[in-house]
Amino acid sequence: MPTRIAICLLEDHITDLNAPNLMGGQPLSKIALDKADSEVAVYLKTSSDSIPEWADIVNGFASFKKGDVTTSSSGAILFVKNKNRILACCFGTSVANINKENIVRDFGLAVAFNRIPQRNYKAIETYTLTENPITNNRSAAMPSTKSNFNLDSYLETITELSGKYYSSSRNVLIKGKEFFSTPAPLSLDEIKKLCATLVIEYDKTILNPEFKKLTAVSKVKSKKLIEFLDEKLCESLNKRASDVCLVDYQHYEDLNSYSLTPKGAKLTELELNDLFNDLIKGQKFTTAYLKTKKIAVFNSDSQQIDEWSLYRCLFTEFSLNIGGHILYKGHWYEIQKRYLQDLKDFISTYEIPASTVNLPVWDKKKKEGDYNIEAAAKVKGQCWDKVLYTHQDFSYRIEFCDVLLPNYVMHVKKLASSSLNSHLLMQTYVSAQLLKSDPLFRKWIKSESKNQFKKNIILKPSNDFKEPSVKYLIVLMTTKPGKSLADSLPFFSLVTFNMMIRRVSQLDFDVQICMV
User: Fold this and answer.
1) Residue among 334, 290, 302 nearest 106 (CA)
2) Angle, CA of 419, 424 and 426, to the nearest 5°
3) Measuring CA to CA, how many Å separate 49 from each of 72, 75, 138?
4) Is the pTM of this model over 0.85?
5) What string of DSSP letters covers 318-353?
6) Dihedral, CA of residue 481, residue 484, residue 485 and residue 489, to nearest 10
């Protein structure tokens, strides 16, 4: 098996081969070159043989020489200067000694993306920033086309890529994430030529529209940047800014209330004003406070079902340079502005004026239930709020809709609600899924129509729809009229709305959204 080399690119502000911030961890020894070269520097990581922990367990019931099972952790780092850029070429276990605060995070991925033909993909790691952020690993037994991996190019972002690359009359396996991994060239000149080529390839690939689209979201890993963003977050909170909001860290069907202190008052919704009021006079928000402050979560029986760090419940969005950064579920992410605009443009195509269906304007005071009754009367429909269906595949009872018309299934929710990003949209999708495929659900609708309203307005005796087209309408009660929905939704809701719209559309229902 050929020796491999892992190569990373240092950020462009690092131009000195002797800079102290090139490496971290245990100090490595600089070693001399056989032939002087001002463009390279080599550091050695000496071996430190050790006995693995499992050896003591096995040695308890079998005899062997522990010297036969020692492991070694040697390596070397070759720093190469190419014009004004520095690359680190790592052998052995030396990757751990690179100061990752100063590396270009998408270098390896970009090079692998550029080099691997789309018919030769072997494995792909992706990330989807949904209500419950998901890392997905796909691998193929044999090299395959990208289309066989079923990537959702709209919502999934690639974080790691491996595949076959034709080099020197043979196919070799290459991988890319932060580092680019490839079989090692056998001479210094070949390594330097490879480094020069990789920098050119990287600069070209990051301008590729397809690469930009597939890498539009990335988790921030730089400790310095995270500290800077945390400071901006605390500044916003201390100024009582409106660009921070509270969201549920996790979705529970039986979640009923919250508390900011163990014996404090129960809150039906998470609101920033409650957080501000909880501070002691003169107290300021700090990162330490946000991470240690707990939010208790209770069910309808007033039993505590979970406890969340306040930091993990905060959402905010900052614009820096050419992109944006968001805090979501306790992690910072970098979001390309183009990707954010694509999400907004997608949502905009489904937005309609509330007047299209004659819905009343929300007076900013009525509760959701009261508004549903008013809306149903105004549009001459039926109010199905809190009429619930039980299905064996779901642990919770399902709400078919809030307001029903012969051609509209409406779900209504306050836009300001912390549960908007999960509860409403999951409710809508499950309703559509059952209406599409479960004959018992349609039978239940006819039965409830007779019992609750004395009239069935949506289904024929055959269980087919009375109208040729039935649409799902998401109705959002907003305190900020005038803004478009796309500009009103926080990033996490934009992503979740995108997923819900496409899932419901795949069930052959049209989807529309309006604000009242």
Assistant:
1) 334
2) 110
3) 5, 13, 35
4) no
5) EEETTEEEEEETTEEEEEEHHHHHHHHHHHHTTB--
6) -90
Q: Tell me the per-residue pLDDT of 140-184, one tens digit each, with 9 for 90 and over.
A: 888 888 777 777 766 678 889 999 998 777 889 999 999 999 999
Evaluate whether 410 touches 403 at the Cβ level (below 8 Å). yes
- Angstrom distance (rounded) from CA 420 to CA 432: 18
Is residue 198 within 8 A of residue 87, CB to CB? The reply is yes
Q: What is the pLDDT of residue 212?
A: 82
pLDDT at 196 over 90: yes
- Cα 459 to Cα 445: distance, rounded to the nearest angstrom: 8
| Kind plus residue range of the DSSP H or E element containing 255 | strand 255-259
Mean pLDDT, range 379-384, rounded to an integer:
95
321-347: pLDDT as tens digits:
556 888 888 889 888 777 778 888 888
Query: In terms of Cα–Cα distance, which of 392, 439, 431, 440 is closest to 411?
Result: 431
The tokens describing 43, both together, are: 């550091």
* 336: β partners: 323
CB 323 within 8 A of CB 339: no
Q: Which residues contact 486 (CB under 8 A, 6 or more apart)?
A: 343, 344, 345, 347, 348, 351, 494
